[in-house]
Every structure is written in C-alpha cells, then in structure tokens.
Amino acid sequence: MDKLYKPVKYQCSDHIELKTYFTKYSNLLKKVPPGLNLSEELTPFEKHEAIMTYREGFTPEKREELHSFLSICESDLTIYRVETESPKRPERSKNTERIFLRVARTNKDSATCKIKKEFAVAVRIYHPITKKNGRKKRFQFSHELVVLGSNTLADLRDKIQCRSDFLCLEVKDPTLDIDYSPSSKDVYPSGFIFIDNVFYNDMRHKNAIDYSKVIRTWAAEESTIAPLSTGNMATTCINDLSPRFGYPYVYQHQGDCEHLLTFSRSWLVTNSDPLNTKDYPHLSSFHLISIKLCILCYKKAAKWMCCDSNRLPHKETPLCQECLLEFLYVDGEKRGEFTLYPYIEEDYSNI
User: Fold this and answer.
1) pLDDT over 70 for what percent of the chain?
2) 302 in Cβ contact with 289 (< 8 Å)
3) Separation between Cα atoms, residue 282 and residue 156, nearest integer Å
4) Which of 197, 11, 3 is nearest to 85 (CA)?
5) What domains can you pick out in the chain, each with its CATH number?
6) For residue 328, what pLDDT band results from cuts at 50, 70 and 90?
7) Rounded Cα distance, 49 and 319, in Å
8) Among 58, 69, 146, 163, whose CB has the most other CB atoms within 10 angstroms?
9) In which region does residue 69 sit, left (phi positive, over 0), alpha (psi from -120 to 50) or beta (all else)?
10) pLDDT digits 0-9 by tens, 69-106
C-alpha cells in the first residue's frame, strides 16, 4: 500500500521492529549512569563531587548512542489527509477539543510490568467517515488507547469504542424500556485490523467470518497492489509488529464501518506509568463529545434516530422522546412509515 499512500505524505517514521528496538534500548539504558543524588543533606563539596562523577560516566559517546534511539519516536505523529495526490504540504489539525485522562492505579493481584523492559504504545483511533459525496474531509480524532507490547491486537480491538457496535434491533414501541441485548457487536463479531499488507482477522467467535477474503480476491487481480496476507488478531502481539509511526492503518468492523488508526508514541514503562498489566489497554485521551440535539425542538438531547420517514425531510433524523411522540404518534399509533432505533453515543466510561 506504500505505492498508493506514500509514507512521505504523512510525515511518518520508517518501519520499526518494536520488540528489537526496545530490547536494544533497554540494554542501552543499563549503561547510563544512575541519576544524580543532590539531596539537601549533601554538602556543597559532595554535590560538586557527585556532578563530576556523573559527567565522567555519561560520556559523549553514550549520549550520542542514546539520542540515536530517542530521535526515532520523539515526536507525536498523527495523520493529516488520506489522498493519493497532494500538491501542497498537509495542514495540522487546529482542533483542541481533547480531554486527557490519568489512569487510576489498581491493587488487583496480577502480573506487574517490568520497569524499563516492558514498553507501551499509544494508538490513536479516528471516527469513520460516513459521507460519500467526493468532498475532502479531515479525519476526526476519536480517542487514544495505550497498550503494552505484550497485549494482542484482540485486546486493542476490545477497547476500541464505536457506536456501530452498540446498535440494537428496531424499536416498535418507544414508551417501553429499551432492550440493548443483543448488540450488533454480539450478532456481528467479525472485524480486522490491516497493518502493512496483513489482515489481522478476529476469529474468536464461532460466527465470525473473514472480512478480508473479498478484498484479497480483488487485490489478487490488480497488478499494482502487493500480495496481501492474513494473520490472527488473537495471537498477534503488539511487539510482533513493525509499524510506521504516524502512518494510517485500517480497522474495519460491522460490515463497512472503517476507522483509521495510527501508532503515535511509544516508550519504556517507568514508575510514572500504571504497573498493573490489567490496567492495559487503557484510555489516555478522547475527543470532546458534543451532545446531538433533537432536530425539531433543538433543546433536548436526541434519544431516538428516526429513519426513512415520509414525514421528515432527512433520511436519518435525531429526535427526543417528547417530539417523537407528539409528531410521529397519535394515541400510541404510528403516523406514516418509518423505522426507529435508539440513538447511542460512544461511551468511554467502560474502557
């Protein structure tokens, strides 16, 4: 895919073998002298002696070797636009509506991360584009997850939030309690993550199918596309990958719901990170969610999505409970023809 979407357009890194890279980096840190001890209890002479000893151990050669590792992923890489041709430099997103979180540390009995041996990776997830009118549109950031190198792609997928996974069956009576089970994720569990010409399929469920089969069949007939292969999402760990940081990869589920995702940052786990492996993957930031208002009163939050109504101008219309009952129902009976579904936003509280 590098021929179609050239890496130079996304200001991304080269391919990085994560496991090899961080093994070398961890071994390199062992050569670095420990931090300075400049406590208030030391005399000025003892502080000066500690500084001189540190400088002698931290030679210019060691600094240069350390810098060569840090320079690879020192910037926060994100995607700009996905275009096959781009005559001008991509613009940076000016969207600052992003909420950062601090992860609460747990005391659960579980394996702990090995400090300065285990590494973490930040993965950015973007909202899918639903409009297909040919207009260029910037991809909107959804949320960012932090995973360990030992986590699998299936662990990552289970934490990705998308409203498509929580859709339920058509509602016949809006006055009754909504039954959210089974959700569309339970009924249609298939999905894949496409990284570097490999489709990592999620086949954990007995009803799962290989979404990539039709794509691979089509690609085999195209001479301009490199050979594509498949992998198992449940057995592929993050440290098995050699991704480009900042390059857009694809996550697809629920048939044709496609998200772009990027590897944005990576670092060795230290004391400042959660050290409980059960705390990963976890949510590190998300885009500020705007409440969708009812299109009729424009005062209350939408609770329903009315589709294909012959009394409304739009194919999909968000409505609150009161407007729905007043405009589309008379004495509990439907007016006109339409289908009704609960309107569901992404819920980041369960990550």
Assistant:
1) 72
2) no
3) 9
4) 3
5) 7-16+72-287 (3.10.290), 289-351 (no CATH)
6) very high
7) 72
8) 146
9) alpha
10) 665 554 455 544 443 333 444 444 445 566 666 666 66
Sheet holding 141-148, edge to edge: 98-100, 282-287, 141-148, 119-126, 257-268, 249-253, 191-195, 198-201, 229-232
> How is residue 250 written in tokens?
């694809």
Task: Supply the pLDDT for residue 190.
Answer: 94
- pLDDT at position 98 is 65
Please state, in angstroms and rounded to a whole number, the distance separating the CA atoms of residues 163 and 161: 7
Least confident of 53-67, 205-219, 257-271, 325-339: 53-67
* Cα→Cα distances 96→93, 160, 308, 349, Å: 8, 21, 35, 21
pTM for the full predicted model: 0.77
Q: Tell which wins on pLDDT, 100 or 55.
A: 100
Residue of 189, 199, 320, 317 whose CA lies nearest to 250? 199
Greater model confidence, 346 or 280: 280
Query: Residue for token digits 């990027």?
Result: 262
pLDDT at 263 over 70: yes
User: How far apart are the C-alpha atoms of 125 and 134, rounded to whole Å?
Assistant: 23
Both tokens of 202, joined, read 């999620």
Mention every residue, 6+ apart, whose C-beta is less than 8 A from residue 304. Answer: 171, 174, 318, 319, 320, 321, 324, 340, 341, 342, 343
| Crossing angle for the helix pair 60-70 and 18-29, to the nearest 10 degrees | 150
| 194 sits in which H/E element | strand 191-195
